[in-house]
Write a structure and sequence with these properties.
The chain is built from 18 helices and six strands. By secondary structure, it is an alpha+beta fold. It has a six-stranded antiparallel β-sheet, with no helix packed on it. Helix 3 crosses helix 9 and helix 5 packs antiparallel against helix 9. The protein is elongated, with a radius of gyration of 43 Å.
Length: 633
């Protein structure tokens, strides 16, 4: 039976406070990233504060489900990182409480957040997406705020290009004005030049009043009023003062949302599943109609005009020679007409097929978009749970709190998730992958990773122990550590110098016997190396006896002996006989020629190193034996 304990409340408080803070940080970062996509729609439009408030409000509602996974990842990393860094997690495990028991209250909390994420996507998200798209469309349709630049043509006015050479910022006067107006066809256009002018908005903000002084007006006269003349006449007017009323809608009006409602993002899951049946039925009927039209075109090709062309249309492939002869009997004009007619009909058929292909592609993409949106609601909610099982175990393994390492890891994990999620969505949308595969690839990649980290953290595994990986690499490349024996602060028992001397002398004798029997400088038989068991028991015994002597002599206070002990090498007891300890693995390696050659020469290297190590042991042992005799005398 699940009962709430003080530990659950303690961890839940730690996680809850961090989750609230990280959520607002992630929400702010996502909103700023999202804002850059639409910054051009906001600048220079003269939008009021209430319109901007609606823009950011709907944007925030849309991004809440995306902020949940990143906030959970970061807060869980920091929570368990802080517990590990302050040794609280060690104390909890020492009390017999496993990591999964520590996480059980947070698991319930994260499941609730996943449910809230799905609710936002299914209920609030569609309404927010619809309102945001309507607001964005209204912003695009709104005329820009009138900020006339100097020295370039300004095209922010309908059917008008305005050029101003210089502006007086204090009086608002414009100097060196040139206006190009085109309200209809090419013939209906005007060019206005003026020494100065002033532009003012009317009270209802529906028009602009342009006042000009000392200028000329050149305007083409409408050609349709004067007949089909070869040249278009124009009129020229010189004025000292003139006022022109220009169309300019300075207000903000919401656009029609009828077309936005059909978008998949503006629908709940129930609406998407309901509309998918209608979309598929409509697509199938249109596809069958296109197929019937194409088949009828092939079965009944369009009839040509001349008698010869009618005969040509009825010919089969077997009548190609007859076709050539009929074509050869035609006159030059008839051949040209037939050729142009055939080319025209082929081009029309090609254009018709291209149009139908584009339309069918659009219909199929609309179906996939609805399915992507429906699946995405579930995968995004599931990512909240997956990110928790990545963040909490990683925090317990790394044991680093604060905003340093957790932020770096969170960014890396989220980038990996974003790459797979975005790539999968694009490939599914473009019909390169199936929708289910494209939308589930990020989950399929991160879910095993979450299970792996949870398993390792629950078993106190050192996944990110750099020393363990360093030792593994050193063993792979045949590297070894040097001894680092220093004088101990407290020595309980002094070493037995006489016994250690006898053991070192015996070790030197065994080394001489071993060197004569094994002859390490000779090339060994490859068959014995790869296909026979070959543990070197003599070297293993010598190494064990030497380590026992070194352990006993490390209790000495003599600096000379301590220095000599550090000269003893660490022996590799089996790498000079065979590559691996398992017999079947050695046999498999020997059968693969390139790999076998690599490990054979690697083994030769270890034999040469062992030969040198044995010589070093003899020299070092002689020096220590001499020093032991001096101490015991």
């Amino acid at each position: 039976m699940f009962r709430i304990k003080k530990l659950d409340i303690f961890i839940a408080k730690q996680f809850g406070l961090l989750f609230v803070g990280t959520f607002f940080i992630c929400q702010f970062v996502l909103m700023m990233q999202f804002l850059w996509r639409y910054v051009d729609e906001l600048i220079g439009k003269g939008l009021t504060l209430d319109v901007l408030a609606q823009f950011f409000w709907y944007m925030g509602l849309m991004l809440i489900p995306q902020a949940f996974p990143l906030a959970i990842l970061l807060s869980s990393l920091i929570t368990f990182g802080n517990l590990g860094e302050s040794s609280e997690l060690t104390a909890i495990k020492a009390a017999g409480i496993s990591l999964m028991k520590c996480m059980r209250s947070l698991i319930l909390f994260v499941i609730v957040i996943a449910g809230v994420s799905f609710y936002f996507q299914d209920v609030i998200g569609p309404k927010a997406n619809k309102s945001f798209a309507q607001l964005l469309l209204s912003m695009k349709q709104k005329s820009p705020e009138l900020e006339i630049p100097e020295g370039i043509f300004y095209d922010g006015l309908p059917n008008t290009n305005l050029y101003v050479q210089r502006k007086d910022m204090d009086t608002g006067r414009l100097y060196g004005v040139m206006i190009y107006r085109q309200s209809g066809s090419y013939e209906d256009q005007a060019i206005i030049l003026a020494d100065s002018g002033m532009l003012q908005s009317t009270a209802e903000k529906k028009h602009l009043l342009l006042t000009l002084w000392s200028g000329e007006w050149f305007e083409n006269m409408r050609q349709q009023d004067l007949g089909n003349a070869a040249e278009v006449p124009y009129r020229r007017e010189t004025f000292t003062h003139k006022q022109i009323l220009l169309d300019f809608d300075g207000g903000f009006n919401l656009a029609d949302a009828s077309g936005i409602a059909s978008s998949a993002k503006a629908k709940s899951n129930a609406q998407i599943l309901h509309d998918l049946d209608s979309i598929r039925t409509s697509n199938d009927s249109i596809g069958r109609q296109f197929f019937e039209e194409a088949r009828s075109y092939v079965m009944s090709p369009p009839q040509l005009t001349t008698d010869d062309s009618l005969r040509i249309a009825r010919l089969t492939e077997a009548d190609v020679p007859v076709l050539d002869s009929l074509y050869a009997q035609m006159s030059g004009d008839e051949q040209r007409d037939v050729t142009k007619g055939a080319a025209r009909q082929a081009q029309n058929a090609l254009n018709d097929l291209q149009m139908k292909a584009d339309y069918a592609k659009f219909l199929h993409r609309n179906e996939r978009t609805h399915l992507i949106e429906a699946i995405g609601k579930y995968t995004l909610a599931l990512s909240c749970i997956i990110f928790f099982f990545i963040g909490a175990p990683l925090g317990a393994i790394i044991r680093k709190g604060g905003l340093g390492v957790p932020v770096i890891i969170s960014v890396i994990v989220f980038i990996v998730y974003y790459i797979f999620e975005n790539s999968g969505m694009r490939m599914a949308r473009d019909d390169n992958w199936t929708v289910w595969f494209g939308k589930s690839i990020s989950t399929a990649v991160l879910a095993p990773l979450a299970a792996f980290f949870t398993y390792k953290a629950n078993n106190d595994s050192t996944v990110f122990n750099i020393d363990a990986y360093r030792l593994l690499l050193m063993r792979m490349f045949g590297l070894r550590q040097k001894r680092n024996i220093t004088r101990k602060e407290v020595i309980i028992n002094d070493p037995d110098y006489a016994a250690d001397t006898q053991k070192l002398m015996q070790i030197n004798t065994d080394i001489n016997v071993y060197s004569q029997e094994h002859r390490l400088l000779r090339w060994p038989n490859p068959v014995k190396v790869f296909f026979r068991a070959g543990d070197d028991q003599d070297i293993q015994r010598i190494s064990d006896e030497l380590e026992a002597v070194i352990e006993d002599l490390s209790n000495t206070r003599d600096a000379v002996i301590l220095h000599q002990l550090n000269n003893y090498p660490v022996l590799a007891t089996h790498a000079h006989t065979r590559p691996f300890r398992r017999r079947w693995l050695n046999a498999l390696t020997g059968l693969i020629l390139p790999l076998g050659l690599f490990f054979y020469f690697r083994m030769l290297r270890f034999r040469l190193r062992l030969y040198r190590d044995l010589k070093t042991i003899e020299r070092t042992s002689d020096a220590i034996i001499k020093r032991n005799n001096e101490i015991t005398q």
